[in-house]
Amino acid sequence: MTEHLPPVISSTQKVVDYGSTARADTAKNLLPQSPPTALTARAQRSSAFVHLNESSGGHRYSRMSHKLPLSETEQPLQRLEYSLNVLNQMCIGFVTIYISYLTLQTGLAGTGLHAWLVTIGFSFFMAEGVMVHYGGNVLTNSYKRSTKTTIHWILLTLGGGCGAAGALIKMIQKGFMLQSVHGRLGITAFILCLLAMSSGLAALCSARVKKLITPLLNKTFHNFLGFVCFVIALVTQYYGYETGYFKSRTKADFQILMKCITLISLVLSSYGPMKGLYHKIKSISRQF
C-alpha cells in the first residue's frame, strides 16, 4: 500500500496570484490536507505578489501618464482670461447702454437709428458672437460645443442683420457718397458683413459643399472674414465718435473715454477669435 506524499514545491518555481478566490478554494478542496511546513508557508507568502511583466495589463499601467494639477499649470492663466473677459463684458455693456440711451433720448430716426443699429449689431451681438467658443468666456464656458455653435449663429445673424441694416440706412441717407473715414470704413464693414454671413451659411452647410472646398478650409475662411469684419466695424465705431451727431451731444472728455473703451473691447474681444483662427491655420498647414 503506497503512502500519499504531499506535493513538493520547488523553491525556484514562480507562484503567481491572479486574484481568483474561487479557483483557490477549489484547488484547496481537491488537494489532500497536509500540515503546513516551512516550505509551503514560504510559497504561500510569495503567492501574494503579482509579476507585472507576466500580467496582461502590466505594460498598460506602465505607460499611464500623470497630468499636473490644473492649479499648477493652467489655473493662473485661466483666471487672468476670466478677469479680462469680465472687463470686456463691462466695456461692451457700457458702450451698448450709453448709445442706446443717447439714441432713444433723441429719437430713433435717421442718424439716431443708424447709430443704434450699428452699435447693437457690431459692438454687442457680433462682439458676443465671436467670443462664444472662447474658453475664457465666463458666460458660455460651461455650455456644450453644440450649444455654443447654436448661440454663435443666432448672435452673428442678429449682429450682421442689425449692423448691415444700420449701415444701409446711412448709405441711403447720404446717397452712397460717403467721403469721411467713418463712412468709407462703414461701407467696407457692410460688404465684409455680407460676405461673412454668406461664408457662414456655406460653413453651416459644409457637408453639401465639401466637394468644392474642404469643411476646415471653408470654416477657416469664414472665421477670417468674420474677424476682419468685426475689427473694421469696431474701428468704424471708433471714428463714429468724431462725427457731428456725437460731438453735439457729448463733451470732448467723454468722447475720449468712449474711444478708449471701444478700443479695449476690440482688443479683448479679438483674443479668442485670433486663437481659434491660429489653430485652424495650423491644422491646415499640417495637411500640406
UniProtKB/TrEMBL annotation:
Domain Cytochrome b561: 83-277
Keyword check for Heme: yes
Gene Ontology molecular function terms on file: metal ion binding; transmembrane ascorbate ferrireductase activity; transmembrane monodehydroascorbate reductase activity
Cofactor: heme b
GO cellular component, one term: apical plasma membrane
EC numbers on record: 7.2.1.3
Keywords carried by this UniProt record: Electron transport, Heme, Iron, Membrane, Metal-binding, Transmembrane, Transmembrane helix, Transport
Enzyme class: translocase
Protein's name in the database: ascorbate ferrireductase (transmembrane)
Annotated organism of origin: Drosophila mojavensis
